[in-house]
Design brief:
Blueprint: E1 6-12, E2 17-20, E3 26-39, E4 45-57, H1 58-67, E5 73-86, E6 92-105, E7 118-120
Parallel strand pairs: 4-6
Antiparallel strand pairs: 1-3, 1-5, 2-3, 3-4, 5-6, 6-7
């Protein structure tokens, strides 16, 4: 058995870049910053920030296009994917991305248009279909930490 699962809580680095492909397929890309703080031996507080490239497809991408903007705090579940390509000089290039399956807005209500809504990509979805997330549940889940 193998597992490829990522859970991130962070802030959106810039407004999502959204593209509309053939057959009404939408893809959104944005960066998400996560920060970690610790106290160095000299007593100085040190904060390190990691930037993650997030990719969201189809119905969830349409929701991101409508509700997510720079600075929003998000909870994201997804999986890591690394892809490669050859640049114009023939050099092999790599990028690592998080393909999001689940997304929850954590920005307080009133500070963002989408606050507090949980959004998931449907599990059994064909590549050509576009399914919107179900927002019928008004219940907000609390994070266990």
């Amino acid at each position: 058995m193998s597992v490829n699962k990522v859970i991130l809580i962070g802030n959106v680095g810039q407004d999502p870049e959204v593209r509309h492909l053939d057959k009404d397929v939408t893809v959104a890309n944005f960066s998400l910053a996560t920060s970690e703080s610790y106290t160095a031996k000299n007593g100085e507080k040190v904060t390190t920030t990691e930037w993650h490239n997030i990719v969201v497809w189809r119905g969830l991408a349409k929701v991101v296009e409508q509700y997510v903007s720079k600075g929003d705090k998000l909870y994201i579940e997804g999986r890591i994917r690394t892809r490669s390509w050859d640049d114009k000089d023939g050099n092999k290039r790599y990028t690592t991305e998080i393909y999001a399956d689940n997304l929850e807005m954590l920005t307080p209500r009133g500070q963002s248009t989408g606050g507090g809504q949980q959004m998931s990509e449907p599990k059994n979805q064909q590549a050509e279909s576009v399914n919107e997330p179900d927002f019928s549940s008004s219940e907000e889940d609390d994070l266990p930490f």
